[in-house]
Amino acid sequence: MRKLFFIFALSLFSVGIITSQTIIGTYAIQNTVTNKNLRPYDAGNQNGNRIVLYNHVEWKCMTWDFVHINDNTYQLKNLFTSKTFQPKDTPAKQGSTLEQQPLSGSATQQWEFIKGANNNYLIRLKGTELYITASSSQTNSDIVLQPVQKNALQQWRLVAQNPDM
Length: 165
Fold this sequence. Notes:
Mean pLDDT: 89
CATH topology: Trefoil (Acidic Fibroblast Growth Factor, subunit A)
Radius of gyration: 17 Å
């Protein structure tokens, strides 16, 4: 009986039914099309600072500590500013830009990482159908919230990093 249970559990894992895996550590969040990362504009520390795309560099301002909330939901803490990001608009809506704010328990600071092919992610604002989307491939372009699209500008990868600067 014990052996049957083990084989059943192993088979569930191998077919992908058990896929939830907690993200632990610090990462750059990189768009799969632009190869650019999320970061506060000009690495500014002020509340309300825009979150933008920027060329990949292993800097603290481009590194996010994943604070696990539950399941696939996280709050993201920037290593340089010790702040997170949330939609500028309350309530969030299609086209809302992202801005930096101090960490709080607010649901507007909770992000669901939905794993797709090739270890890429869609990143959805918890409790909504709005996803983090690069507005263009330009450096310092805004990050906006959009409904899910068949668009690679919504695809993100995690790049492990532990910067000194």
